[in-house]
Amino acid sequence: MTEFRKAERRRRVQRRMMKLVTVMSTVAAVLTAGYSFVSEGALEPKEILVPPLVITVSEEETPVGSGPPPAAMKEPAQSTSEAAAIPAPPTYLGEFEITGYCSCDICCGKKDIKLTKMETVPKSGYTIAVDPQVIPLGSYLEIEGVTYRAEDIGQAIKDRSLDIFFSSHEEAVEFGRQKKDVYLK
């Protein structure tokens, strides 16, 4: 093999390595962004859909000595018990006294950073404060058909009382104090 062909082969290998590094860094960036999105409390990890990574290598780009290209990967078949699994109905916890709160200084006091106890940004219609001795943090609660996540605690939240997060103080005050049935999902 001539020196010219050896140099040409080295350049091709370097180009392929650069493509691989680019793809790997893109995948790392997507996974990191997905993790930070989940850690913000927006979605559960099972709800993030990441498309499968498929790299196609033509025969002329196949490195020498690497053998035939790998066979197409197939998704594992779901077991019949998983496919037939029906989600369990929510568990009734009882009637709770529910109030509203927001991130203003009146509701939460003066803080530099207004995060929940689970260190997430509170979201209206999603975040709820609970007594962690009654309902564990991270639990999902259903109140009148709306699903909330227990991400926060409060000084006044004891026993069978909950605090729903609202985006404004006016909405929280308008909600007032109500008794509602609560279900654990």
UniProtKB/TrEMBL annotation:
Keywords: Signal. It comes from Hungatella hominis. Coiled coil: none annotated. The keyword Ligase does not apply. Residues 127-183 form the 3D domain. Signal peptide: none annotated. InterPro entries: 3D_dom, 3D_YorM, Resuscitation_pf_RpfB, RlpA-like_sf. This is 3D domain-containing protein.
